[in-house]
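Q: Could you write out the predicted structure for this multi-component system? I'm mainly interested in how the pieces pack against one another.
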Amino acid sequence: MSEYSGIRERRPFSYHDLGGQSQGLAEGFRKRCLKASDRSFSQGLQCQEINSMSALMSMEDSVFVVHAPQGCVGCASFANDLYRVGQAHRGLPIIRNARIIVTNLDEKDIIHGGEGKLREAILIANERYAPKLIFVFASCASGIIGDDIDGVAHSLAGEVGAIVVPIHCEGFKSKVCASGFDTAFISISKHVLKGERLPKQKNLVNLFAPTSVSRKDQVEIERMLAVLGLEANYLPFYSSLEKLKRIPSAEGSTAICKVFADEFMKELERDYGIPFAHTVMPIGVRNTDKWYRGVAALFGKEAEVEEVIAAEHERVLPQIEGIRKRLEGKRVFICGGTGRSFAAAALVDDFGMRLVGLETPTYDEDAQLDIEYLNGIHGDFVVDVANMQPFEQVNLVKKLKPDVFIGVPTWTARLGIPTTHVLDMKRPTMGYDGILYLGNKIADQIENPGFNEKLAAHARLPYKASWYEDDAFKFIKTFAGPAPGAVSRAAPAGGEPVIREVR
Amino acid sequence: MSAITEAPRGNCALGGANAVFSAIDRVVPIYHAGPGCCMQTTAGEAGQAGGRSPFYVSGVSTPCTNMLEHDVVFGGVDRLRETISGALEIFEADAFFVLEGCTSGIIADDVKSVTDEFSAKGLPVYPVDCPGFLGESYRGYEIAFASLLDHVVQSAPREGDLVNLFGIMPYHDPFWEGNFEELIRILEKLGLRVNSFFTRRQGIAAIRDSSAAALNIVVSPWLLKDAAAKYEERFGVPSLRWSGLPIGATDTSAFVRAVADRLGLKDRAERVIAEEEAYVYGYLETAIGALSWKRFAVVADSNTAIGVTRFLANDYSFTPIVTIVTDPIFRPEDKERITRQLTELEHAKPPAVVFETDGWKIARELDSHSEITLLVGSTNDREYAMEKGIQCSVVAYPITDRLVFNRTYAGYRGSLTLVEDLYDNL
């Protein structure tokens, strides 16, 4: 069973509010002299409940009971939309909705407790759909009032046919949304796998993939594995109880996203003897090679994978050369989730682009490896350790004036800068085929920036002109609180901004 | 009491309130809430309203205290104070509304005393008590209007040609902008000036002076009763409630006559009606028989359900079978008013009228009616239509598979668009 709490902030040397130049940060991190810090002003985050739900919402034989007021299923609409589109891309004749039941906690429940309603919701889920799994998601409200979701789930074990899996994803427990993935896997381990070992199935690999992976990407990754004679157990997107139960019979595990199932794979190694490859996201040539070699090594297929990589290079490198001619020397600012931001940074290297700014949600040991690698290529660039924080983003992008912004385009497009992104959940981005798609996408956007240019003449951003002149990191305050790794937040005592200079 | 609901067609009180504030030009909502409420509410309202994001501040650009465990235990007012100060420093805005989420609501942080510190300095920072658990989106809509009345609306001299148009909820009605625009177009033809608060970049100034209006027109069978009463009591602005979105010549002309009647514009109204009806029928007569006869079911919010059912039955001679109203209507008199609107039809036999919000129960209700050949509903309802092999048209919240800018089904012109869209779906 897991010893990991599921709270990403509790992992050692992990920072979420930081800003400065990449060389300085890397040095500070290396010497262990980066202080804990926090933003005294912040824009909204993504809570872990959103991630817990989105990770599981395409499980076909499941019902999702959300123990919360009705607002806490807002983002389930995104997950459901992805699920619906995913079914269409898989050619299914009838496109279903994810089965989401919300207990709709109200004022009365807040005072008297909502366990009765939760019990009723689970019974309703069972009666309506006779599912194999019922996932129960906690919320801030249910957590604060102290509803015992484990107790309710346990008490219904004999009454319902489904396995009831309570997930402790209360939003207030973590400011790092990826914690929600961990929390979901901890519960799957505890309630579905339960430590039972199974006979190994030769060449079976657990392939953990978050919702943000398109059908085309799944096909490409599975193709790459099949070439090596490997069978992928694709999880948990579009999977089922049966597929979850096969997890212990795999000979190896890997993940498509860097912050997805990484802690779970450690647990699978410890408890079930399943080795894993946790390298990078397979985006861009270097990263795809690295990811591919990592998986191959698990199965002793080092020689085979080199042959395949050589053949793939022969196929795609000449085409990449063509894209490189269009992109060489272009200055780029990247914003993305932990896996994608660094993957995109490696990708732009394939095209000879120059990194001038990087926004990523977490700085930790893994990030340090990537930053040091990127420092070697790009010299010095701005790093904003933030989960979005558009106010900092537009401030930095306006000052740095990159040739292209890679990330969610909502705000920087209004500055008139060409934008594109590597998180296209319905289209390809990964593997060798994905590189060409992304490269052409970036080049096309840079060469034809008319929409954003014209938009900038009319669109509005809500910030004062003075904000763009200000230090983008002025609200990041260090404080003499607990060392990074502690979850509680001491009040920032008006301390020094971390690193002020932005070129 | 809020019921357990499958596939809910709404967000929470916080989401509803935010839908309102995020639709007002140069207004910034500030959340005193958990980390995630900004995204959940924006995705729940605007995200399901034809896939857009409010232009000024929304989702992860909304200032937020992102309350964590520490704040739950020790309270979050210091954090809130810093967040408001930061927002005032960087945002260009005419007003800031501090919206409470479940976390601050449950631990009972004193938000008002913090906003008072700012308003004492003359800064436009206002508290809104709207924790999610207070109810669904519409509750938030009502709370937001109450808050605007408390903090923004001031008395102004009466202007006889000015009306306020209320009842169409931003984002929760995915076609709100188009619907406002069409109804405003028609009212302007009567010689009126119209406040909607939300369209044409109206903002705090229009809201502040809305007490000058000669009439509040509330297009909804049940919303904004309290707000309408307050306008009347405090500023002497009377209201006209119009129960259901007017769609097509019959209902829209009746709507025009009702407004004109209240404001003494009868002659002008008849001229407008003649002109608009000629416009509509000029098109309808070019596609006679283009759509085959249908026995239809409607699953939608009350405004859309009434508008679509009445138009298709009265003006288009389709056969209504069942209309399911998905709003959480709790007052019996409101249910009666809605039922009357849906059953008092011209020639058609009235449909069965059902009030239901739960997705599974809606499907079972549809099962109990035979020979439905057209289902007019939301993206949620496509699955049912696919399973049964019947035509489906998505015209009501939640909509995640269409992009909606200024499309409208309201009024004269909107009825033509509705017919076009029904044809596209064959």
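A: Regarding packing and overall arrangement: The mean pLDDT of chain B is 97.
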